[in-house]
Amino acid sequence: MPDRSLSLAAYFSRYKGDWGGKPLTDMPPRPNGTVVWVRATNPDQLDALGDLSQQIQVDGDKIFLIISLPFASGEAVQSPRGHGQICAFLTHWRSNLVLWLDSDLDPSTLFELKQSAISCMLVSATKNVLRLPKKSRMPGLMGAMLRQFVRIMVVDKDVAMQVVRGGADASRIETLGPLESASRPSSF
Fold first, then answer.
1. What would the pLDDT profile of 144-174 be if each residue is shown by its tens digit?
2. pTM above 0.85?
3. Nearest CA among 99, 97, 90, 155 for reference residue 129
4. Which of 46, 59, 72, 155 is 20 to 30 A from 22 via CA?
5. Please, which residues bridge with residue 37 across strands?
6. Which spans in 117-174 are helix H?
């Protein structure tokens, strides 16, 4: 059930007009099929995501991962920042699902995803997930953001308890450990 809290709406009621961000350019065309936006925060996650993408292709599924990082790097595009970029990104990719890796929760992006009714999963969440910049602190905001995720996969039970205290629904939380690359078979 979607969050009915007004916290995200109240957070954005303070802003007028565009919330910044230069237009995104050079986005590749959207592939035909199911698009999953993987919002990563660290280039170290690319190996594990490459393994996942390769396994999806081997399985023959028409699922495409659009991986974004704070800065474009290799196969990853730049994560959108600011209202204009976020809306353009969502319009262009028309993602069916968002996998949000680790902990860099962004109220702007989560607000637009909620408006677009795109399901989100938080993957490999650490204790840092509950940290917000001072300008983003507002009563109820953390809980409202956490409740946007249909599933929250945390690295350990301590993080699970912290996320519940932060306002997440306990029934949506799984303890799976960190996202890691698949083992490569050794060649003889």
1. 999 999 999 999 999 999 999 999 999 999 9
2. no
3. 155
4. 46
5. 66, 98
6. 141-146, 157-166
